[in-house]
Amino acid sequence: MKKIILAILTIASLSAQAQKNTFFDQAFWKGNTDLASIKAEIAKGSNPSELNASSFDAVVYAINSNAPQESILFLLAQPGNDVNKITHDSRTYLIWAAQRGNVPVMEYLLKNGSKVDIQDSHGYTALTFAAAAGQQNTKVYDLLIQKGADIKKDLNHDGANALLIAIANDKDFALTDYFVSKGLDLNSKDATGNTAFNYAAKSGNIELMNKLIQKGVKYNDNAMIMAAQGGRGTSNSLEVFKYLEGLKIKPTAIGTNGENALYYIARKPKQEEIINYFISKGVDINLADKEGNSAFMVAAGSNRDLPTLELLSKSVKNINQVNVKGVSALALAVRGNSADVVKFLLDKGANINIVDKSGDNISAYLLQAYNPRGMEDFEAKFKLLTDKGFDVKAVQPNGNSLYHLAVAKNDLALLKRIEPLNVDVNLKNKEGYTALHKAAMTAKEAELMKYLVSIGAKK
User: Fold this and answer.
1) Which residues is 135 bridged to in the sheet?
2) Dihedral in degrees, nearest 10, Cα atoms 390, 388, 372, 445
3) What pTM does this model have?
4) What is the pLDDT of residues 415-445, one digit of tens each?
5) Domains of the chain from N-terminus onward
6) To 10 degrees, what angle do helices 238-246 and 206-214 make?
7) Cβ-based neighbour number of residue 346 at 10 Å
8) pLDDT tens-digit profile of 147-182?
9) How many CB atoms lie under 10 A from the CB of residue 98?
């Protein structure tokens, strides 16, 4: 009990100190980025070194918005903004500055001890992250190499070097030629044998792929998988896949994780023509990757385009197929897709009573889907499940109640939404913890624990 009271007091103290940080408002960085404006916000109480929930801070926002150099350098000089500070996706300021091609800021960071070999959570260093962004300013790479970056050994998690990473955005080979001059081989391969051609296939640039063939670059069936992946936020046309097939690259190719091309295409809206093409070539919608997810399951988890899901569903053998964690398409949809998709799956006969291997039923996935900005969708899912006879307030097979699950979301409004359901607030899970115990260990706001106590939680 003493620990819970101490936790409440500690969090209350931190909450009292918290206030709005203007530097987290992206609108601020669209125009008010001069040094005087930044100093004014600091004087009002905005913290220039504080990280937000996504681990962005004022320096990162300033770099990414191309703020004036004096503004960025001033922020870098503030306490708490060490040159090797870890931010979003484990990136340092040097990684962000390299991506933006901001050589003066890079020079400042390196002069003050910034490390060139730090990798972010995706395996990118400053050098390879700049390459991934298609940064054409070779002074960025020159500076990093001068400071010790080893261009031959600098690989991402896939074992790809800067040349491979950059090729899709390098239409005139200027950057490729630069990397070759620094010792990289145009015939490089990543850890699973993907060549520069395969990486170019992601962009769907047929002219670029033809030029690579003319230069003697080889390719393999995985080019089809990489073309299906596409670029960030982009999809390739049917013409691209037919072009690859014309090179004897198999539409039925299987990727290193056991996935086929439909696994990626099914995630994207308005892909019916391409889906039909792959189905006509014998690509199996029901094929599960090494994690047990099929193309349909992946689509159910994130693709809101009902015509695409309807098309895929015609070839689905088992609507209740689960992955290696015991998670079904319905659970994925409840957690990450729209109420319309949840209804679609329920109408197709999806089982609402499947429990995953962690002992979580569909209620756990419903609460994971909770977002204060999407309450209409949350309530629609809630109603769909209850109308089908599912008891959302039932205790999970692992002993967790809705209160246990809600505490993990750290949202007072969600706790208040549960209270009318008459769930036992003092129920202990199989670990022996009540919701109040869990809140004391994980809650960021004292109000959560205060509220639980107010509705009868025992200390």
Assistant:
1) none
2) 0
3) 0.87
4) 889 888 888 889 888 888 888 888 888 766 6
5) 393-458 (1.25.40.20)
6) 20
7) 20
8) 999 999 999 999 999 999 999 999 889 999 999 999
9) 33
